[in-house]
Design brief:
By secondary structure, this protein is mostly helical. A two-stranded antiparallel sheet has the order 1-2. The longest helix has 22 residues.
């Protein structure tokens, strides 16, 4: 029966796949259908039928009008069952060559599709190639791949690097070609300040594969990577390998990002090499760092500041991949002493590099580094506490994003870490509290069952205190602790903590909206905004009872005071950040969970916001324009209240303003006019006499003519 079905499908598909005078959509559907037929039912097709369909697919790949559709079918063929894999060897070499030639096209879409298909085909069928002829085929592919590895298009570079890795895995003898064609531009890419995310991960994977497969000598590759730092600072864009060059849109050896990327490259190849090579690298890193400390902490004779940062970062990144405590010669204690010594360096970059390295090195050797971090937290100055907390945050973040070197977890260490975080959550320095909040937020993602009850207890202990904002001592510390909890929950939500675990604790955290301290209320608003933005279902059911009453109050709160600065006086509005945050929450709710808010009750608040300070007005304008498309009916009923504040906005006097100040004033006026135009297009709104007269009066006024012209050009 299967054979009969396969034959019937073949008889229906083959004529349409072979025809040239069919509609484009039918051609594309025929391509997909033929690929599915080959992938699923190829055992039921004769060899001649298989070859016929494969040859037609190749023909369509070479045709300009059908090549994109043909490329999309190749992954379908490649994913055929491994137990009875389709034999594509009759067209494999031609397909690979054709895909490689398409990499020269100017069209980015063609290049992207060709790279994705090429990678899949090589991964699944590359081993079917063999012999010197196919090695030469891959040499041609690698030549084309190397030419499009540039930092001006990181996604194309990422795909090119992945394809290169696939070639190296299925054909280890192509190593010299990878070294010749792909490695030089990859080395240039390693010091690009633009390098990040997928492109960076692919580059690291390529370098690791080069070392694992012995395609490049480890010491030669290490020297080339270390040379990138010096070459880029000197303005030299060569690879240091003596095997060709590649251009980059911007060199960045001296930038923090470039040094960080280079350190990760060195760490990944060191982790992949032999233990003896690894020991030598670590010995050299420790030696150079000790020389820098002896010279004052920022670099010694023959050791630049960037080389110090590179050594620190590379040692830390290596510590995430291997257990430094297991290495002979007291490597872990030596590095611990070095990292803590650099906290006294005069260079801020060196301090932060040491903190980063300490956190990363702790992942692989937590028994050595974590107790030292926690002990130092209670013994050092505020500045060092910030650096130690940065290290702790990096340690926790590493587990949050992928775990440790041995695949372990941090759960057993949470009881040790938490008391130290709690003791610093009321620190008077906001930077320290923010770092504590980040640590708590990340731990909440990892261990919600442990962290959420503790955070709830902190709110119960420190919340609800009637304390004056300027009061020092215990009362003020209560407010700071509540601020830290709110900020920690904000970070946890943004990092996608489990909503089902958070849901039961949210009412406790939302009580912080009613705290007297303004900074706590602002932090609570930002927590709500994070939830509405990332996981609206977490607070949608709590809006009416726990959030909207405070939101309505804070969106209209006005706390102006006059500060005497001697020659002149300055008016400060302490509630401005709260009004901004409240409006941002309303705006996001209108988009994410409109059913959870009372939109008509929000209209008077929006009317007041139109007459507020400039930043609030611009927010209100954006909300109204957005509502014109999503929720026009409440606007029609409230439009009369919008007329007077909009009139004041567009009548703003520019006076003697020039340059950016004048441009800002004009943008403010244009924003008001843009809002008026959006409202005037709503059905029924011109029945409001006051608004209709306002629109007509404004359009007749000559001084607004140039603004209307500019708005028309924006459309």
């Amino acid at each position: 029966e299967t054979n009969q079905v396969a034959k019937a499908l073949y008889d229906a598909i083959e004529p349409r796949l072979a025809a040239h005078d069919l509609d484009q959509e039918i051609k594309e559907c025929a391509l997909v259908a033929s690929a599915q037929l080959l992938s699923v039912l190829h055992p039921s097709l004769s060899t001649e039928q298989q070859h016929r369909l494969l040859s037609l697919l190749l023909e369509r790949l070479k045709n300009e009008t059908t090549r994109i559709a043909a490329m999309k079918t190749l992954p379908i063929l490649a994913s055929s069952s491994k137990s009875s894999r389709l034999d594509v060897s009759p067209i494999l070499s031609n397909v690979v060559s054709e895909l490689a030639s398409l990499l020269r096209q100017q069209s980015r879409g063609v290049k992207q599709s060709a790279l994705e298909s090429l990678d899949m085909v090589i991964q699944c069928h590359g081993q079917d190639c063999g012999g010197d002829q196919d090695v030469e085929l891959y040499n041609g592919v690698l030549r084309e791949l190397g030419m499009i590895i540039v930092d001006s298009d990181l996604h194309i570079s990422h795909l090119s690097l992945r394809a290169s890795i696939s070639v190296l895995k299925v054909c280890p003898s192509s190593g010299p070609s990878v070294k010749k064609h792909v490695l030089p531009p990859a080395l240039v890419l390693s010091t690009s300040p633009l390098l990040q995310d997928l492109a960076l991960e692919s580059l690291l994977s390529l370098l690791e594969q080069l070392v694992v497969s012995d395609a490049v000598d480890f010491h030669e590759l290490l020297t080339s990577l270390q040379g990138r730092l010096t070459n880029d600072i000197g303005g030299n864009s060569t690879s240091g390998m003596g095997v060709g060059t590649s251009t980059s849109s911007s060199s960045g050896g001296g930038s923090k990002q470039a040094v960080s990327n280079l350190a990760r490259c060195i760490a990944v190849i060191t982790a992949a090499t032999t233990p003896s090579n690894r020991d030598k690298v670590v010995e050299n890193l420790i030696s150079s760092l000790q020389s820098a400390i002896a010279a004052g902490g920022d670099g010694g004779v023959g050791v630049s500041a960037q080389e110090v940062q590179l050594a620190l970062l590379a040692s830390g990144d290596l510590g995430r991949k291997v257990n430094l405590a297991a290495m002979a010669g007291g490597v872990a204690p030596n590095l611990l002493h070095i990292y803590l010594s650099f906290f006294d360096a005069s260079s801020e970059d060196a301090k932060h590099a040491a903190a980063y390295a300490l956190g990363r090195a702790s992942v692989g050797a937590m028994d050595v580094f974590l107790p030292a971090i926690l002990n130092a937290l209670e013994q050092n100055s505020q500045k060092k506490q910030y650096l130690l907390l940065s290290a702790l945050r990096e340690l926790i973040h590493c587990y949050q994003t992928g775990g440790g070197a041995d695949g372990g977890d941090i759960s057993s260490s949470v009881p040790l870490i938490l008391p130290h975080l709690v003791s610093h959550c009321s620190d008077k320095e906001e930077g320290v509290r923010t770092m504590v909040a980040e640590c708590m937020g990340s731990l909440t993602c990892l261990e919600p069952g442990v962290m959420l009850p503790h955070l709830q207890e902190l709110v119960a202990t420190h919340g609800g205190k009637d304390v004056d904002d300027n009061e020092e001592g215990g009362g003020r510390k209560d407010a700071l602790s509540c601020w830290t909890v709110a900020t920690a929950i904000k970070f946890a939500i943004a990092a996608h903590a489990d909503p089902s675990k958070l849901a039961g604790f949210m009412p406790s955290f939302l009580r912080l909206l009613s705290e007297r301290d303004l900074s706590v209320r602002n932090a609570a608003l930002l927590m709500v905004y994070s939830s509405v933005h990332h996981t609206p279902q977490l607070v949608a059911g709590l809006m009416q009872e726990h959030i909207l009453p405070s939101l309505h109050e804070l969106a209209q709160l006005n706390l102006k005071r006059v500060v005497d600065l001697g020659p002149f006086k300055h008016t400060v509005d302490d509630a401005l950040p709260l009004r901004k945050a409240a409006l941002s929450i309303f705006s996001t709710c209108l988009e994410k969970c409109p059913a959870s808010i009372d939109i008509p009750a929000f209209m008077p608040i929006l009317g007041k916001a139109l007459g507020d300070v400039e930043d609030i007005q611009l927010q209100a304008h954006q909300i109204i324009i957005s509502m014109c498309y999503r929720h026009p009916i409440p606007l029609v009923g409230a439009v009369e209240a919008f007329v007077d504040p909009l009139q004041k906005t567009i009548d703003k006097k520019t006076g003697q303003k020039t340059g950016t100040e004048l441009e800002r004033a004009h943008e403010w006026i244009k924003s008001g006019l843009r809002t008026m135009i959006a409202l005037s297009n709503l059905d029924g709104v011109m029945n409001c006499r006051k608004f209709a007269e306002f629109v007509e009066r404004t359009k007749r006024n000559e001084k607004y003519h140039r603004f209307f012209v500019a708005l028309e050009e924006e459309r």
